[in-house]
Amino acid sequence: MHDIVRKVVSGRLEDMFEADALASDLSGRAMHHLVSELFPICRSITGDGVRQTLRKVQEHIPLTTCEVPSGLKVFDWTVPPEWNIRDAYIKNSAGERIVDFRACNLHVVGYSVPVHVRLSLGELKKHLFSDPAHPDCVPYRTSYYAPTWGFCIAHDQLVALQEDEYEVCIDSILEPGHLTYGQLRLSGKSSDEVLISCHVCHPSLGNDNLSGIAVATALAQHLRNRDLRYSYRFLFIPGTIGSITWLALNQSSIGKIKHGMVLTCVGDAGAPTYKRSRRSNAEIDRAWIYTLQQSGSPFTVLPFSPFGYDERQYCSPGIDLPVGCFMRTPHGQFPEYHTSADNVAFVKPAALRDTLERAIATIDVIENNASYINQKPMCEPKLGDYGLYGGIGGKSAGDYQMALLWLLNMSDGDASLLDIAERSNLSWDLLTKAAEALTSAGLLKRVEDVSGK
Ligand code: ZN
Asked: For residue 380, how far is its CA from the centre of ligand 1 (angstroms)?
């Protein structure tokens, strides 16, 4: 870790969090409850809203908080000044708050500079933003790098505004401070890492922001209880500038990341979507697509494109990590996206749970993927002599025997379990059980056992 980064580890962190309440709740309601607790907080790419969010996550997992000072150069970018806001409103001449930040934090354009003035309707309108396509929703807008101020309001309200003298106040502070992010590393047998990344920079938006945080937190809880092959690095970071900052400060350890996924928009009722990494056919890409296929329900696979969430940075050409992005309905493709309608009710407990289970299934694949060598490759071994054939009827037994035969046939030291799974279209559970049985019977050997690695 770069020594300019201040790490904040609260004293008795290990004692603070609940063991695995989020991961063990099969209904997804515990994750949904976390979404509802985080929803009111006004987050941005920096500031106390991010810190408050990470403290809440720390009740569930032992996250470390890192503080990076404003002004630090990170590749082509600079860590921005820290933004905090206490209050904001537009009052009419009768003194009534007609727009109130305390009622909905989306009303203020993120990173608005402080202002306190009286304006005519004409002047005020230059600073008002609405979305005519969704006239009853408050849109979400930011201006991180161009100093300005503004309010977002429902289009219905905008068109109904009367001529008046309006009092406009944004009580914000924009000054040198820190960019805050959270990280958690779970150690496995190998120091090679799997990266799980989500963004924590949107204010009161449910699916685009909080769903990813809830599932990543639950996934960390689940993995903490497992014997792991890989080490896992969870990042809870502000979008774009957070991943750029983390990558710039951790260039020496980027090579340890062997697989990765960005989790975003994972709580809506839509079908799953997986966006491939820049490498397109990395093991993580294939693992996700195989588990989606095995589920038997509809899903979409998108090619890589240099737009979207932090996979853009992880997959920039100089970094080129095998990091894909899992989502349900992609950003911009649900009408609630970046509006006040992306609220707690838009996030579904069952969708959060389904996402968690799919992520666990995919991790099972990369955790157990291995290549084997058939020890009796001259024609089929006589399986009955090893107690591996006959005596079992029914369809599942047939699949199990097919798994044995596929493994024996393909295990030339080159093909991996995932290769065999894709070709045979058999379930991961069946193939790993069959590989175990063949290994115990001395018919298969794992490549690393053979080469003595
Ligand atoms: Zn967004």
From this structure: 55
